[in-house]
Amino acid sequence: MIKPFMPQLVYIEPGALEYHLGAELKKKFEDLGVEIRKTTSHNQVRNIPGENHLQKYRNAKSTLVVGVRKTLKFDTSKPSAEYAIPLATGCMGHCQYCYLQTTMGDKPYIRTYVNLEEIFDQAEQYMSERAPQDTRFEAACTSDIVGIDHLTHSLKKAIEYFGNSENGKLRFVTKYHHVDHLLDADHKGKTRFRFSINADYVIKNFEQGTSPLDYRIQAAGKVANAGYPLGFIVAPLYIHEGWKQGYEEMFKKLDAELSDRARDDLTFELIQHRFTKPAKRVIQKNYPMTKLELDEEKRKYKWGKYGIGKYIYQKDEQEDLKETLNSFIDKYFPNAKLEYFT
Ligand code: SF4
Question: In this predicted complex, what is the ipTM?
Answer without folding.
Answer: 0.99
